[in-house]
Amino acid sequence: MARPSPCASCKRRRRRCATDCIFAPYFPSDDPQKFAVVHKVFGTSNVRKMLQELPVHQRGYAVRSLVYEAKAWAIDRVYGCVGYIASLKNQLAEAQNQVSELQKQLDVAQAQELDLNHAANKRNFDLNQRPSREDGPSGLN
């Protein structure tokens, strides 16, 4: 029995969509671009083989991965998603360097604050140790 509306794969290939069509659950007819990008990069036959080799519960994840990678290849034909991953790694390294620099600046500021607090405490201690004017010249009454 045929489906009322063929999946994106069968529609693209102008074929009837069988009830057991492996593409139908993952490439609905209302999103033909999703199949088109995967077909352009991997080919229908290769995608069918990949899906057939996987257990049914993993096919959805595989299709999402194929779509993601195909879109990445459409954007960057040389590196694909590897280029995107490398870019993200570079951004992460830059962010980690910035955090490291900010941590150093924070450490310096905290050390300066400790020095200022220590100096202020020492000054207060010294002021409290001075003899008052009411005391005699030797500090004794």
From TrEMBL:
NADP listed as a keyword: no
Cite the record's Basic and acidic residues compositional bias ranges: 131-141
Coiled coil start-end: 85-112
Q: Which UniProt keywords apply?
A: Coiled coil
- The keyword Cell division is assigned to this record: no
Q: Which PANTHER family match?
A: LOB DOMAIN-CONTAINING PROTEIN 12-LIKE, LOB DOMAIN-CONTAINING PROTEIN 4-RELATED
Name the record gives this protein: LOB domain-containing protein
User: Which classification does the entry list for the species?
Assistant: Eukaryota, Viridiplantae, Streptophyta, Embryophyta, Tracheophyta
